[in-house]
Design a protein that fits this description.
Its main location: membrane. The chain has 1071 residues and is mainly beta. The protein has 9 helices and 60 strands.
Length: 1071
């Protein structure tokens, strides 16, 4: 390009600048240095008076975009939407930002801001004037300053002192020097230079005498004008030297020279001349640079100490430092040096190539601007700034593009151009441009440079991705492996390039655990699905293209999770506890078992079964109700425990188990059973000296029921004196809770004799209480003087009905004669009875005995074990049976109150267990009678042995027994029981409602004891039927046989009886 062409280009550029002045604006702000972050500086929108025309429709919202140079650290921040200007976290340091411009004393920071969009585009150049703050203290170059002054120095002579340096300017710069700890010989003065610098000078105020004092030490202080001021000090040491009459004098005190910036190293800059009027060594002059010049200047220049010639020490650069100021000192070695100032001006040469600074308005990607093919005309792309560090014509730069492109450079400021679109763009015609920007100066020869701007045209995204179908149906079995691939989803886009590249994502309604590959569209599930938690999933998959303004579409995915048999049946409880009354009928409802299965279909069909209790219980397959297959008896078994198994219909099936415990709740179905007394045919001795309130004996009963059904209360329902002929007077009382029988009053003579107490024990069961009756005999006397007499009285007590008093036929003392006659008659009668007894004894040992034994075998335990059997059991050392095997059946008594309150009329009938009312009565095993004996209960039969007879009999069932309300007189163990029975030749017929009669019985003789009867340590039992007008006479009984067969004997506190002896019912025949 020739000079004419360059001139034409410059003219066009100048015209364009005039036209574009309306698009470029400038704005100045002032900001102090060292401000913290987010300090508001101004509002660009308000200060530019940007009033938007409502009629102008903007393609995008108003935006203020700073155009920074690549790599610049922004010192201010412009809010894009409001135009507010704030400081950033990068603090402004004036001394760093504007180093080398101290002479001008003004420091600026410039940025350009583009106002977008293109409809209202303008470029704003903002200049920030940085105000100095006093953030630097003035400092001396050395902490110790040495000055040499001759002793003959005249008063008011001035010597320069090296000045301090302060990078701050203006009032914040150096303002004052002063001497601290001064002496009278010296003073300090300050000289201000034309540039505004302040230099301190030391003034001699008195004559100096080296012989008196050769050294003066002071402190000099420098202070700036900041608020508050900053200062520093240095030691000023003055040495008095020998007489030196004259000091050097420069020929030129100030010298200014010009040197081209390309001067070679070693080139001479200037030569200084000085003279000294002294002679000899005092006239030798030495040249040197003052410490007041900058370090950079000292690096670029050197001075010869002898000749005073200044030379170039390092290459110079006018663009860095155009002016250097040198202070040269001339000293003769003893006097104060002289000072001269040399100003070196560097002249410009065309040694700098123009530079191009591209600041993109449109964000670039990897150095390339992406521009839509639909970009409008005049769309601003970048701000191009061209500069040349050279001066004058060498610094004038022209900027242009090297060939025809649909873009142009539009000047806005001096040496600044906007790159914008100049013609419509077409992606299909050309997809990218490499624009070469050329900058050329006016040097001879001209220097030029170039830069490339890469622009890629983007395809306009105007096609939406499309799916082949609107909905996708899927299914997957549950418990899948993680990361299982479900399907590959594909869509198409009619655009090209990035606009046709699709990204697949899950919609916002997609549940956790599902993933889709963004590129391939493969849909997968990243977790195990559980149908029981969620069976169906419905969500969307989105296909989005890569357009700058992306377009998207979606498809609905419906996923069904197929069931697997992965859940076992679940019982609502691991253990079930049911409570049922013991009278619950057969197949009644015990309780409901609830079991569920979280699976579906056949996998949730559950079958229940009982594992270890199927013989006793069954479970309804439909309702899951447990029903008993047995009748309950709490006294035999209080609870049942078994396992219930639940199996589902899956393949393979799964199984669960639950424990079921059925607790049998007590029903009042057991009468109290007397344990003490263990025999009705026994007595206790009550001495006449016994104190009232003393316990003379006690009764004790047990009840196999529990709770209130086993709560027992004792009472005396009647009391009779057997041996006297007077009516009882309530001599004894019983504690209803403990059964202790106590003496209520002191014994008198009329109370002596055998007392019979009828004791009733009653439980507190509901709805109807049950009871039993026992007899207590108390022999009130000092001693047992006649055991036979007492036995006779006991026999009479046993023969006396409960509703009759033995004293009904009272014999008065006046009739004692008649008693003697009766005794005589009885004695004669005894002889006859003895014969009959022997005859009966013989018959009892014959065939009937064998027949009874056989019948006993058929009826369970109705036959007494013989002595031989007992011996066999003893040899085998079997365990002793619990006391409940020794309990007898009961005789029930219908109770009615007579008109005479002194006596109670009691009708008795034989009451057998309920089981005997059924057809298997003849086979009933009496040893299974329910009981509540605990394992540690005492075996009461161990307290005694007896010689009581043991007759045998057989009861035949005829008709069912009608139930009656009743009391009970307990039958106690026969080992200690005096038993009477019918003669085998006599036929006994029952006149009561009792359908059971004695089919066969045999006894011989009357009552006979094996020895003297002592006071009762244990209790003997006797069963009687009080409806008889008289009981069997002693001729009907066979105690000898009973003693022989039973192997027992009467014993007051003898050996313990065997607990495995069988129990017999003693039946009393009607008259």
């Amino acid at each position: 390009m020739d000079l004419a062409s360059q001139a034409q280009v410059l003219l066009l550029v100048s015209v364009s600048c005039l036209v574009m002045s309306c698009l470029a604006q400038e704005r100045d702000y002032t900001v102090k240095e060292e401000q913290p972050e987010n300090v508001r500086i101004g509002n660009l929108r308000r200060d530019l008076d940007l009033n938007l025309d409502p009629a102008v429709r903007l393609s995008s919202p108003l935006q203020f975009k700073p155009v920074y140079k690549t790599g610049d650290v922004p010192l201010v921040r412009v809010e894009a939407g409001t135009g507010e200007i704030f400081t950033t976290n990068h603090r402004i340091d004036r001394e760093k930002l504007c180093s080398g411009v101290f002479a001008e004393k003004r420091c600026y920071y410039e940025i350009e801001v583009a106002v977008l969009p293109d409809e209202i585009f303008r470029l704003v150049k903002i200049r920030f004037l940085i105000e100095d703050v006093n953030d630097n203290a003035p400092l001396f170059q050395s902490t110790v300053i040495n000055i040499s002054i001759p002793e003959n120095t005249a008063i008011n002579t001035r010597y320069p002192v090296p000045s301090a340096f302060d990078p701050d300017v203006g009032i914040n710069g150096i303002q004052h020097y002063q001497l601290v700890k001064s002496v009278s010989e010296f003073g300090l003065d300050i000289i201000e230079t034309p540039e505004g610098d302040k230099w301190p000078q030391l003034i001699v105020q008195q004559n100096l005498d080296r012989e008196l004092k050769d050294t003066f030490v002071m402190k000099i202080k420098v202070e700036d004008g900041g608020n508050p001021p900053k200062s520093s000090t240095a030691i000023l040491q003055v040495t008095i030297s020998d007489v030196n009459d004259n000091r050097p004098i420069f020929k030129d005190g100030e010298l200014e020279v010009s040197v081209p910036e390309n001067a070679s190293v070693g080139a001479s800059v200037a030569q200084l001349h000085a003279t000294d009027a002294d002679l000899g060594s005092n006239a030798q002059i030495h040249f040197s640079f003052s410490n007041q010049i900058s370090a950079a200047t000292k690096r670029h220049f050197a001075i010869d100490g002898s000749s005073g010639t200044i030379t170039v020490k390092q290459p110079l650069d006018r663009e860095v430092t155009p002016v250097h100021k040198l202070i040269v000192l001339a000293s003769d070695g003893s006097s104060a040096p002289s000072r001269a100032t040399v100003t070196v001006n560097l002249t410009d040469v065309n040694d700098n190539v123009p530079s191009i600074d591209i600041r993109y308005i449109i964000n670039q990607v990897n150095g390339t601007v992406l521009l839509s093919e639909n970009a409008p005309l005049n769309n601003k792309i970048a701000l191009i700034t061209v500069t040349d560090k050279d001066a004058d014509l060498y610094g004038k730069v022209a900027c242009y593009t090297d060939h025809d492109v649909p873009f142009r450079l539009k000047p806005v400021f001096n040496d600044q151009f906007l790159l914008e679109t100049a013609a419509p763009l077409d992606y299909e015609t050309k997809r990218e441009y490499a624009i070469k920007i050329v900058a050329s100066d006016r040097g001879t020869p001209p220097l030029n440079t170039s830069a490339m701007v890469l622009i890629k045209i983007k395809d306009e995204n105007d096609n939406v991705p499309l799916f082949p179908q609107p909905e996708i149906q899927l299914s997957i079995p549950e418990n899948n492996d993680p990361s299982t691939q479900l399907i590959k989803i594909s869509a198409t886009d009619a655009d090209s390039g990035h606009n046709a590249e699709l990204i697949y994502t899950l919609g916002p309604d997609a549940p956790d655990g599902f993933n889709i590959d963004r590129r391939t569209g493969i849909l997968s599930v990243g977790k195990r699905l559980d149908r029981e938690k969620q069976e169906r999933y419905s969500f969307t998959v989105v296909a989005r293209d890569n357009g700058s303004t992306s377009l998207q579409s979606n498809v609905t995915v419906r996923l069904i999770v197929q069931d697997l048999n992965d859940n076992s049946p679940a019982f609502t409880h691991p253990e079930y506890n049911f409570y049922v009354p013991e009278n619950l009928p057969l197949y009644g409802t015990v309780g409901l078992i609830t079991v569920t299965d979280a699976d579906a279909g056949d996998n949730a069909v559950i079958t229940l079964s009982i594992l270890n209790g199927k013989d006793n219980f069954l479970i309804d397959p439909v309702t899951s109700v447990i029903k008993p297959n047995i009748t309950f008896d709490r006294e035999q078994q209080s609870s049942y425990t078994f396992m219930v198994k639940a199996v589902d219909g899956g393949q393979p099936p799964t199984t669960s188990y639950a424990k079921v415990t059925i607790n049998v709740v007590d029903v009042n179905d057991n009468r109290p059973v007397f344990v003490i007394p263990s025999s009705n045919y026994s007595y206790d001795l009550v001495q006449t000296s016994t104190n009232p309130g003393a316990v003379v004996t006690r009764v004790f009963a047990i009840d196999n029921d529990t709770g209130m059904n086993a709560e027992l209360h004792y009472s005396i329902i009647s009391s009779i004196i057997i041996t006297s002929r007077v009516s009882p007077r309530g001599l004894f009382a019983i504690d209803q809770a403990t059964g202790n029988i106590t003496l209520q009053e002191r014994v008198v003579t009329a109370d002596q004799g055998l007392h019979r107490l009828v004791i009733r024990v009653k439980d507190l069961g509901q709805p109807e209480s049950l009871q039993a009756i026992a007899l207590i005999h108390l022999f009130v006397n000092d001693t047992v003087y006649n055991a036979t007499y007492i036995q006779e009285q006991l026999r009479k007590s046993m023969e006396t009905p409960l509703d009759r008093n033995i004293g009904d036929n009272e014999v008065t003392p006046q009739a004692s004669g008649y008693v003697i006659v009766v005794i005589a008659i009885i004695a004669g009668t005894m002889t006859v009875i003895l014969v009959i007894f022997v005859t009966a004894l013989v018959r009892c040992r014959q065939t009937p005995r064998h027949k009874v034994v056989q019948k006993g075998k058929q009826s369970g335990e109705w036959v007494s074990p013989n002595q031989e059997n007992r011996q066999i059991k003893k040899k085998k050392k079997k365990k002793k049976r619990s006391p409940k095997s020794l309990l007898l059946n009961f005789v029930t008594i219908d109770e009615s109150k007579p008109d005479d309150p002194a006596h109670e009329h009691i009708n008795g009938t034989l009451d057998l267990p309920v089981e005997l009312e059924e057809q298997t009565m003849g086979k009933y095993n009496w040893a299974t009678t329910p009981t509540t004996f605990k394992p540690d209960s005492p075996d009461l039969a161990k307290h005694y042995k007896s010689a009581s007879p043991q007759p045998t009999f057989q009861i035949k069932p005829e008709t069912p027994v009608a139930p009656k309300k009743h009391h009970v007189i307990q039958e106690l163990p026969l080992d200690n029981t005096f038993v009477v029975g019918c003669d085998s030749l006599s036929k006994c017929s029952s006149t009561s409602s009792d359908p059971y009669s004695v089919s066969e019985c045999s006894c011989q003789g009357g009552f006979k004891t094996a020895g003297q009867i002592t006071t009762r340590q244990v209790i003997h039992d006797f069963l009687f039927k009080p409806t008889h007008t008289s009981l069997l006479s002693e001729s009907n009984c066979c105690p000898q046989r009973g003693a022989a067969e039973g192997g027992g004997r009467w014993h007051g506190a003898g050996e313990l009886s065997r607990t495995d002896r069988r129990v017999y019912v003693n039946v009393i025949c009607n008259e």
